[in-house]
Design goal:
GMP Synthetase, Chain A, domain 3; disordered N terminus; about 130 residues
Length: about 130
């Protein structure tokens, strides 16, 4: 029988019921995707809220063009990962990384323990 490993740190494998109904299989797939973050909808809401918070905190430190194209794509207790659409924006944030970490720690209760900041460049296709 085919076993699919759970996405959390739980070593117990998830057994797929190949004879189950379509609804049962979809429920099982949703359970596997949820993992340690809860549902995907909850994760999306958390990241959107974090993005809004980072943008408001950094409003005085970054140009509007960078803020409009900045998103939080991952947050853990010690690290935040941002994505921007240009290499110039990524370099700007990278050079001021320690200052941004300090500002986030001081001005936000959500990011008090952040000590690492990563930046990813994600080029969006032109419409």
């Amino acid at each position: 029988m085919f076993n699919q490993t759970n996405l959390t740190n739980n070593p117990k494998p998830i057994k797929v019921n190949h004879l189950g109904s379509r609804v049962e299989k979809q429920l099982m797939a949703g359970h596997a995707l949820a993992g340690e973050f809860g549902s995907l909808g909850e994760r999306l809401h958390t990241l959107q809220h974090a993005t809004e918070e980072v943008r408001s905190i950094m409003a005085d430190a970054l140009p509007v063009e960078i803020l409009q194209n900045l998103w939080v794509v991952n947050v853990s207790t010690e690290q935040i990962t941002l994505t921007v659409t240009s290499t110039t924006a990524a370099n700007h944030i990278h050079y001021l990384k320690q200052s941004f970490i300090k500002i986030l720690q001081e001005q936000s209760t959500s990011f008090k323990q952040i000590n690492k900041l990563k930046v990813i460049v994600c080029h969006l296709p032109k419409p």
